[in-house]
Recover the amino acids of this structure.
DNA sequence: ATTGTTGCAAAAATTTTGCATTATC
DNA sequence: GATAATGCAAAATTTTTGCAACAAT
């Protein structure tokens, strides 16, 4: 069975993903860890990210500037992506959409809802003025 | 100035994007057109897609299986992406989110809202049983 | 021992780009 | 003729994979 589940590198990769709110890309995770774990390879980061996704421990938020950005917070929440600084910001939303009920009634099986706002974040907006 | 704006290829590319509900990828558009326009090149498709995006004539819906999927329907609507067949389906939603108001009040500049549901579409769901 | 995990480098795959050529105004 | 658009192929990027070596039970 895959996911034996001990490997200090796997653990370090997950910890890095889980302990940031940056919604990192694979290469960001790799860069964070390569000082601490010099013989880490990028392939391992990708392989573990794929595993975590299968296990439902992380989700993909969006592709930003050609890179997939992930999140270890799998709770139902929305995101704001800044077109200027490419940061991804969490937004917590409580309301349930009537659309979801409609989809369910039409026979769709909703596994995940991904709400992403695109625009200019308040920090960049200030800088740009 | 960029966007002279006539080129029969540009026109054909836009027409292809605008006249499908498949939310195509660049290579799908290319494949559709290469019979009709044998000397079309994929680079041109990419360059025109980038231009249409700048012009606000199309938007990116999501990245599916590593390919960016676009939509010439720039009206505010949601999408459902099937994990099984990778189809992207339009969903029209009328309600406005209270979250948007909140973001606006916090100084964010929302340019686009992207609501994507992931799951199994009703057709695949039937087939899988 | 057996099965899982990794490093490394090569390979895939998508997207971008440089430059000479062609089309449009 | 000047500017914009394209073809082609090479390059850049991100992601995946094969395989031998290593680690864990």
């Amino acid at each position: 069975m895959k996911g034996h589940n001990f490997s200090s590198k796997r653990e370090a990769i997950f910890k890095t993903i889980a302990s940031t709110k940056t919604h990192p890309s694979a290469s960001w995770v790799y860069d964070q860890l390569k000082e601490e774990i010099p013989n880490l390879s990028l392939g391992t980061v990708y392989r573990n990210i794929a595993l975590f996704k299968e296990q439902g421990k992380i989700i993909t938020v969006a592709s930003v500037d050609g890179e997939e950005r992930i999140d270890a917070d799998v709770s139902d929440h929305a995101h704001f992506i800044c077109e200027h600084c490419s940061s991804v910001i969490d937004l917590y939303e409580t309301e349930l959409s009537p659309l979801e009920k409609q989809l369910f009634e039409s026979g769709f099986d909703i596994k995940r809802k991904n709400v992403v706002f695109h625009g200019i974040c308040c920090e960049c907006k200030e800088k740009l003025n």
Observations:
- The beta strands of chain B are 59-64, 67-71, 78-82, 88-91, 109-120.
- DSSP finds five helices and five strands in chain B.
- The CA atoms of residues 55 and 94 of chain B lie 25 Å apart.
